[in-house]
Amino acid sequence: MTVSEDFINQRKEVYTKILCDLIGAKTVNPPGDEYLAAKIIKKRLSKIGAWYKIYDKKRHRTNVVAKVGDAKGKKILISTHLDVVPAGDGWETDPFTPVIKDGLLYGRGACDNKGQAAATLLVLDYLKSVEKQLKSQYIFVFAADEEQGSSLGLKYLLGERKVEADYAIVVDVAGAMQKVTVAEKGVLNIRITAKGKQAHGSTPQKGISAIAGMAKFIAKLEHYILKHQLHKYLTRPTINFGTIKGGSAPNTVAGHCECVVNIRYLPSQSPKSIVDELKNLSERFGEFEFEVLVNAPPTEVDDHNILVETIRNVAERHGINLRLKGLSGATDTKSFVLNDIPAVGFDFADDYVAHNANEYCRLDNLFKFSSVLIDVCLEFNK
């Protein structure tokens, strides 16, 4: 047993309790209220004597940034978040009252992302215990607002230079320590507006239904594959019809219909090329307008950079054979890469558990991950 593993074993009960407390802190976003979870993080940081600072862009939307090590050395940042999605339906237990059964801890946020917050806090605890030996600086971010775009969280911290780093590890991608994510698709929200001609509902032939036109266009897009080039780690682009509204009354031909689509796109595509492609497809169905509401570009890092290689080598020593993967979803990894900070995703949680009813994390994976992440950090201390 290594020194770090012995350290972790001695603190399993403490950090299981911390995770339970974090789940009990209702930080559903919206409204967020991350300050409730931040209190728990701050209490532990104060107990172990770690430096930290609080950043709130808005009241109660708390970000905690902690640092340990030598500020003159390489800066390694580890990021998690404190907000969670709404509980939803289908739970067998109270989602905000943690339950432990057969080594699984159930509760909203157990795997996304409060389990990760507890695991990285444990890593920080260990590094603080050997701080005099550290040649690098390790920055731990417990961020707000990740589930709603990070404008009050990591994007704010990076945009106002509250945090800086040479490398970043985002502990928020699932994968049960079996993969490192090195690429993410772009996220594009487009408002599509169909224009018709309003008329009385008793004489629909005198009007042009914008709803009917939109329905035909959606039927065309439902199984349509946007033009793209294959990517080593990313699957093909997708189109999701997120919202739709139109018409003014049942007895009136709809002169207007609006749909917002969410497109996950590849580096070979661009917002302009996608909009142009949609325009060409729409021409046979009526008059349409297109407006880009959100664009978060696709990102990727060199799959042989020092961060990737370090994680893979450490994982191999722990008996883990990692694969490199891409994500269709977007995490805070994207924000780091867009700010010229090489970043990857690495996590211990099971795939397909996040945002589901009866969300859980495996406690043995949580503590094993802490041990692996400690060793990754120490590799940057050589």
Structure report:
31% of the residues lie in helices and 26% in strands. It folds into two domains: 3-183 and 298-379, Aminopeptidase (3-Layer(aba) Sandwich), CATH 3.40.630.10; 186-296, 2-Layer Sandwich (Alpha-Beta Plaits), CATH 3.30.70. By secondary structure, it is of the alpha+beta class. The chain contains nine helices and 18 strands. It starts with a helix and ends with a helix. It is elongated, with a radius of gyration of 24 Å. A hairpin with a 5-residue loop joins strand 1 (51-56) and strand 2 (62-69). The strands form five sheets. A six-stranded mixed β-sheet has the order 1-2-6-3-7-17. A four-stranded antiparallel β-sheet has the order 11-13-9-14. The protein has helices spanning 3-24, 35-48, 114-129, 154-159, 210-221, 271-282, 306-317, 333-338, 363-379, and strands at residues 51-56, 62-69, 75-81, 99-101, 104-106, 137-143, 167-170, 179-184, 186-195, 199-200, 238-246, 252-253, 256-265, 287-296, 299-300, 323-327, 343-345, 360-362. Helix 1 packs across helix 9 and helix 3 (114-129) crosses helix 9.
